[in-house]
Amino acid sequence: MRLDDAVRDAVRNLADEARPVNLGARAVTVARRRRAVRAAVATIAAIVALAAAAATVVVHPWRDPVQPAHRPSVVRLTLSRDAPLVIEGLELTSYHRNNGPTRVLLTGGRYVEATVSDAAVAPAGDRVAAIRLRSVGLLDPATDTVPRPWQLPWGFARSVQWSPDGSKVLLSVADDGQNGSPRRVGFGIVDDDEVSWHPAGDRVVLPIVLPGGAGPVPSVAALQLFDLSGAPAGALPVPALVHGPQDWSPDAHHIVGFDVRGGGLLLFDGPPWRQVGDVSSDDDVWWVDDNRLLVARRDRAGGALLLEVRDRAGRLQGSYRIEGPDVSTMNHLTFRHIR
């Protein structure tokens, strides 16, 4: 299925519409609604062709590989609301507690709670973009308000993400269903976290999702790139979900993506992009540098969070045990590089 054809057809379909729309989003919708057998076969054939080069790559899973002669000692850290938590040059900027209606955000050197649908701390740590259903704007942490919000004319915002340079904000927006059955708009297709920034900050990344066939679970065929006008800007043969620049190594040559069907994290190198391993983690991972990852593990019995530093082969480089009142219920952590 050629996305440029979808863009052309989307333009034709929009010729008589009055309200502004996102051409990239409509192009994706048009492409997904096509039912022509030849178009579907062409799409699958193209994806298979993209993946063929990686078919013979040996994948090395993380199964606790051979450890160094002296296993690194565990460093104990306490998460306090009064000071930032920093590990290996990564600063914890936000987290959820119990998936509740509040998010704990780092602002002014302290962690404060905000009642928001979603929020993101800017890469420089100086601003917080926050969503409250139909509005988005900069959060005032002192009053837990968004003083000058931008009101969406329709639908509601689901997720917010800063560009890598902190100059733009990307929203995932859902229709409120007032004009028929609920449908996704913007760039999102499956869930709130799919639309994301490319680490260069000049493109948006959207997984191309194939139907689940006989089962309910879809699969990701590749990552489609769009420029900021919504026009297709290439594709990467990476069959996994990425959730933002944090899933790319700083040099943009390595990606950790979520395997929708298998449920694990996959490691890719490129270009040319190929799967080179899988990552064992109880939660999420974050790149420390081009060769090392911060990997989350849960000590459920002890109520602590274990953060391990491992290289791309899975070898343990360091270990941190995080304790504190919030730790046993915290999830959806975000970090930023501060060095």
Characteristic terms for this protein:
mainly beta, 3 helices, about 350 residues, about 10% helix, globular, 5-stranded mixed beta sheet, Neuraminidase, 24 strands
Question: Care to describe what's here?
Answer:
By secondary structure, this protein is mainly beta. The protein has a single domain, classed as Neuraminidase (6 Propeller), CATH 2.120.10. The protein is built from 3 helices and 24 strands. It has helices at 3-14, 23-33, 37-52, and strands at 60-61, 74-78, 86-87, 90-97, 102-107, 110-115, 118-121, 128-132, 135-138, 150-151, 156-162, 169-174, 196-197, 203-210, 219-227, 232-236, 254-258, 265-269, 274-279, 285-287, 292-299, 304-311, 316-323, 330-337. The strands form 6 sheets. The protein has a 5-stranded mixed sheet with strand order 2-23-22-21-20, with no helix packed on it. Strands 3, 4, 5, 6 and 24 form a 5-stranded antiparallel sheet that branches. Strand 20 and strand 21 (292-299) form a beta hairpin. Helix 1 crosses helix 2 (23-33). It is globular, with a radius of gyration of 21 Å. The N and C termini lie far apart (43 Å).
